[in-house]
Amino acid sequence: MCRSIKTLRPPAMPEEATEDEMRAAALQYVRKVSGFRAPAAHNQEVFDRAVEAVTRATADLLEGLEIRGGTRRAS
């Protein structure tokens, strides 16, 4: 769907994804879904809330994933 969103879990990334990397992926997702690169002023608040919600969901997902071999990401 969004080719500019990169995989944020090991082994694709050698280190744990940063908050900035998760937010960048969330921003790309919200842009794609909404169809807006930059929302109009009257949509900015809901756009920003969506980015924050997707960022939190991404962090929760990455923290909960079990990587092959039974190891879990360190938090």
From TrEMBL:
InterPro entries: DUF2277. It comes from the Bacteria. This is DUF2277 domain-containing protein.
